[in-house]
Q: What sequence folds into this?
């Protein structure tokens, strides 16, 4: 393995999907075992990657470069830094768990696993692309499998828009409603998801093409572009070009994140998707947005990022509060979790907007933590749906008698989602909040309220599902007993709590990726003009150590090597 | 102008593929007449064998860099001509293989069908080599003649006759425009060969002449506003003919357009860029929006073809060496995806007897292979990675953004999203909806081969485009001397591109 780890992680799922084409659906066990082994290779390699990544050296490691098109200046250029590594790990964990979660799918099993593997591999590809073309390539490639997964194995989103509060006054998600045209079918959800994401993806592509054109380097290589491209101070249409590119890139990718008010595709998509797809969708697909913004906008346009990132700081408040309130009033389990995800993604934007070591590391760790927590929640919502064929919270109840294991796991997942000390989510949340306090106190207060809101809707859902009087209609429901059903939940719980107690390595890895980035952004002089320091032309890995104590205007940002766990 | 006809045998070598194919065509025709009991499939395989030999000959030309001109520059064999000839022959082979089963629907003249297809291919090979306005006119009409007959080959089908008549009337009208345009251009410049015209002055007569020529070529490629014949003709024609019509004449016409715009008119680039930008925007938008409303898969593909032509015109509007590379590459990607998609349409139509999109309900249950192939072909047409169409679109956009055609690219990008909608509607029918009649659909051997070739092309070009980009780049090398490698020699100043 060694230096080829990235190739194994990326191509094992593709190879699995290819192998599955030649297997018949009449051998379900063979189909599943091929899918599991592909995901397993990917998982083991990404665990190796995570622990073999050297945070002291930092920079991009495990570089693989293959020329792809000379004429266009494209190469398949793979490499991970401290930001990509945990997200690659999260994707492969969720893929592995997702295959077990969807173990009982009977209809067209083979096709299901093919598309699931392609979806996961494409997201993994984004997290390790160092080439703008391939970043977009994998990004767009992850969208189409979602269409088929939602359409073929999803369920209709019946009446999910109807919400009632205790006085049974009707409320509705107005943004979602305006953009929804009142349709409740899974086909509609799938089409909306694909068109929404493609529409914004081409916005980002426009930004990418503008970078390509104005850099004038005939390359899509992110590392070359970030060091040599000078996109600043070109006047266009009454503003400057870098601002236009930044806005295109930011909103293009923020739609998948999903940032309010571009979120409306997401909860609908969650509600229609089968459990494993929701897990990957909420767990990693949404992080493609944040990741691509970091990789493209932060790396190539650091100056502009510093100038324009307050946009995210404003919008993230709406994300947090709006998502939280809708989740509180929603009646559909998956809709609640979906909106909770989009609300929680607001925290990541807050962490990114504050642009300092602590908050940005917090944001990255939060992406990882949220992937586990929301993965668990969706897996269990999927289990409950499989057993009862209902996602309507008011009609469910008392299921803890029937499924003690699931309800115990559900409590853990809720705790993780809320950010209970002991889970990795706590570390992430506290870092975001501490890191952003100096710069955005209002947003931090909103975020705190958001946590309270999270508590409220998750407990409300938990009570509605597992406690209270039982609906006799669902007396046939049973617990997850088989190993294949318990394994995915246990893996995600173990990761969530394990990193909550021992976050050192995760923290070090993330810091090694975040530090050079924040250093670039907070530097006053644009790098391209001075041409010093970071501009080591030709070299692929620039081992930028966080040793320089620069622009440390945050009280907490002066101890790069102290793990946050010490604060607990 | 004097025509020197003192040619040697080695000069005739340049014409070898055409000469051989003509002889072969006659042989096939004679066999058809003299052995009436011979199964017509044999004729198909015989034609394919001749085309393959011709293809091999052209491949040999390409590898040995054989090139030259004949008949006082009327006929040119350069690497671009070879590229387009290989392209056309490849398309013809696939079309013949795809029509073997379909031909049984014809009541009469089954043998002549193959001869007409090969004859049209022969005409288009001459189009690829046409280097002056007269040979453009002759070869274009020669190629179209075969199509007039082919489109109305279903004698008892009203739609086929209607399509043929529309095609004929508009085609003859376009031929008239072409002849008129040629006469104006010749009257203004006294030149017929493209490379001699580069120094001409932009007089009103010349401008009108070229506009008329562009209109008639626009008719061939089906760009808006010269597209009116496309939907009805595509709908009515026998599906294999539609397949042929949707790819080969467009490619051949683009060979001529490239020579006209990048060689003859290269000095007028600032003038024609805005024309091409406008036609491209209108074609893409109109084609995609109208395609949404279609209920028939052939009409849907017809409108999607109009939109695809708009995409190709982006590359022409860029007007650079890279733009021409991108056009060739895009056409290559389009060849596999489009022939593949039509092959699926033929296979499904053969089993069901109709071509409505509703008939594709639950195709995934009836024939997973056909559904999967159709899925990939449609996604390639939409431009989804990792398929050929995506790389083609990106190539075109990169070529255009280097020239600063921002508005055009923005429209092109928006159109990707629009087109995704109607392609996904078909995908929805195939994958999500349940079939009304779940009986499996069988596929014949040749058809399976066509679909496999289409899939292989779509995937290989999408995943590893390097050999193909190398090929197209070397094929258009001769434009470099006219327009420079890729950078802007002429300042990009289209009014729309700001």
A:
């Amino acid at each position: 393995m060694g230096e080829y780890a990235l190739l194994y992680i990326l191509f094992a799922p593709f190879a699995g999907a290819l192998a599955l084409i030649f297997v018949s659906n009449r051998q379900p066990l063979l189909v599943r075992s091929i899918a599991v082994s592909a995901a397993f290779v990917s998982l083991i390699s990404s665990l190796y990657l995570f622990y073999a990544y050297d945070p002291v050296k930092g920079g991009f490691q495990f570089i693989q470069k293959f020329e792809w098109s000379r004429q266009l200046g494209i190469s398949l250029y793979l490499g991970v830094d401290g930001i990509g590594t945990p997200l690659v790990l999260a994707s492969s964990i969720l893929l592995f768990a997702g295959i077990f979660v969807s173990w009982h799918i009977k209809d067209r099993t083979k096709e299901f696993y093919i598309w699931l593997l392609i979806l996961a591999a494409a997201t993994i590809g984004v997290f390790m692309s160092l080439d703008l073309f391939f970043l977009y390539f994998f990004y767009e490639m992850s969208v189409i499998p979602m269409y088929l997964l939602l359409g073929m194995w999803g369920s209709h989103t019946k009446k999910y828009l109807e919400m009632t509060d205790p006085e049974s006054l009707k409320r509705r998600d107005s943004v979602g409603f305006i953009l929804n045209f009142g349709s409740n079918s899974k086909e509609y959800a799938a089409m909306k998801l694909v068109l929404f994401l493609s529409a914004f993806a081409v916005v980002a592509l426009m930004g990418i093409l503008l970078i390509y054109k104005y850099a004038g380097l005939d390359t899509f290589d992110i590392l070359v572009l970030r060091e040599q491209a000078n996109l600043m101070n070109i006047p266009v249409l009454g503003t400057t070009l870098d601002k236009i590119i930044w806005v295109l890139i930011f909103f293009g990718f923020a739609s998948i994140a999903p940032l309010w008010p571009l979120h409306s595709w997401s909860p609908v998509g969650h509600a229609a998707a089968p459990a494993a797809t929701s897990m990957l969708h909420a767990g990693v697909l949404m992080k493609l947005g944040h990741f691509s913004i970091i990789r493209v906008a932060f790396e190539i346009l650091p100056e502009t990022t510093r100038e324009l990132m307050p946009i995210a700081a404003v919008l993230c408040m709406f994300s947090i509060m709006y998502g939280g309130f809708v989740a509180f009033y929603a009646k559909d389990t998956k809709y609640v979790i979906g909106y909770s995800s989009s609300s929680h993604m607001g925290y990541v934007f807050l962490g990114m907007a504050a642009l300092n070591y602590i908050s940005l590391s917090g944001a990255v760790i939060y992406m990882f933590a949220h992937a586990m927590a929301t993965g668990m929640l969706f897996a269990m919502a999927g289990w409950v749906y499989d057993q009862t064929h209902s996602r309507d919270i008011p009609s469910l109840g008392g299921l803890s008698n029937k499924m003690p294991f699931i309800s115990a796991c559900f409590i853990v997942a809720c705790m993780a989602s809320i950010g209970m000390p002991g889970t990795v989510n706590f570390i992430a949340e506290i870092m975001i909040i501490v890191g952003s306090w100096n710069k955005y106190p209002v947003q931090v207060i909103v975020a705190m309220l958001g946590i309270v809101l999270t508590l409220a809707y998750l407990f409300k859902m938990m009570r509605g599902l597992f406690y209270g009087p039982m609906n006799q209609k669902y007396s046939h429901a049973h617990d997850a007993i088989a190993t294949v059903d318990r394994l995915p939940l246990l893996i995600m719980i173990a990761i969530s709590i394990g990193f909550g107690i021992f976050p050192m390595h995760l923290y070090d890895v993330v810091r090694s990726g975040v530090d050079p980035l924040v250093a670039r952004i907070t530097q006053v002089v644009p790098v391209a003009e001075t041409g010093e320091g970071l501009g080591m032309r030709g070299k692929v890995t620039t081992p930028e150590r966080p040793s320089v104590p620069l622009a440390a205007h945050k009280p907490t940002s002066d101890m790069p090597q102290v793990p946050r766990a010490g604060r607990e | 102008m004097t025509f020197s006809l003192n040619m040697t045998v080695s000069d005739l070598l340049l014409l070898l593929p055409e000469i051989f194919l003509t002889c072969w065509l006659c042989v096939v025709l004679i066999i058809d007449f003299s052995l009436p009991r011979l199964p017509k499939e044999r004729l198909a395989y015989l034609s394919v064998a001749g085309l393959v030999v011709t293809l091999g000959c052209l491949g040999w030309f390409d590898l040995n860099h054989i090139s030259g001109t004949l008949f006082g520059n009327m006929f040119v064999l350069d690497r671009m001509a070879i590229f387009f000839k290989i392209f056309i022959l490849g398309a013809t082979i696939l079309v013949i293989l795809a029509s073997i089963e379909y031909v049984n629907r014809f009541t009469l003249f089954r043998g002549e069908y193959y001869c007409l297809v090969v004859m049209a291919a022969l005409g288009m090979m001459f189009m690829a080599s046409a280097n002056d306005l007269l040979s453009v006119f002759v070869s274009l009409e020669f190629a179209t003649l075969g199509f007039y007959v082919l489109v109305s080959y279903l004698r008892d089908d009203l739609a086929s006759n209607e399509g043929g008549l529309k095609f004929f009337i508009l085609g003859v009208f376009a031929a008239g425009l072409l002849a008129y345009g040629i006469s104006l251009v010749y009257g203004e410049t006294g030149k017929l060969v493209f490379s001699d015209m580069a120094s001409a002055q932009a007089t009103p007569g010349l401008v009108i002449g070229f506009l008329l020529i562009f209109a008639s070529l626009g008719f061939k490629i089906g760009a808006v506003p010269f597209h009116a014949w496309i939907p009805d003709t595509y709908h009515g024609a026998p599906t294999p003919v539609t397949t042929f019509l949707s790819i080969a004449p467009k490619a051949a016409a683009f060979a001529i357009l490239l020579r006209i715009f990048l060689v003859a008119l290269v000095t007028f680039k600032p003038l024609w860029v805005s024309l091409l930008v406008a036609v491209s925007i209108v074609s893409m938008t109109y084609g995609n929006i109208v395609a949404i409303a279609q209920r028939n898969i052939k009409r849907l593909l017809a409108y999607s073809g109009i939109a695809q032509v708009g995409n190709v015109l982006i590359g022409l509007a860029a007007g650079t060496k890279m733009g021409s590379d991108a056009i060739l590459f895009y056409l290559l990607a389009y060849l596999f995806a489009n022939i593949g998609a039509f092959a699926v349409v033929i296979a499904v139509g053969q089993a069901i007897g109709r071509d409505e999109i509703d008939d594709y309900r639950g195709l995934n249950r009836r024939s997973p292979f056909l559904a999967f192939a159709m899925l990939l072909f449609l996604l390639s047409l939409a431009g989804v990675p990792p398929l050929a169409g995506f790389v083609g679109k990106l190539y075109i956009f990169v070529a255009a953004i280097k020239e600063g055609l921002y508005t055009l690219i923005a429209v092109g990008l928006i159109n990707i999203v629009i087109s995704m909608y109607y392609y996904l509607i078909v995908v929805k029918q195939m994958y999500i909806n349940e079939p009304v009649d779940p009986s499996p659909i069988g596929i014949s051997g040749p058809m399976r081969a066509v679909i496999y070739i289409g899939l292989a092309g779509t995937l290989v070009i999408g995943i590893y485009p390097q050999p193909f980009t190398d090929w197209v780049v070397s094929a258009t090398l001769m434009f470099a001397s006219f327009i420079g490698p890729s950078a802007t020699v002429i300042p990009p100043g289209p009014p729309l591109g700001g």
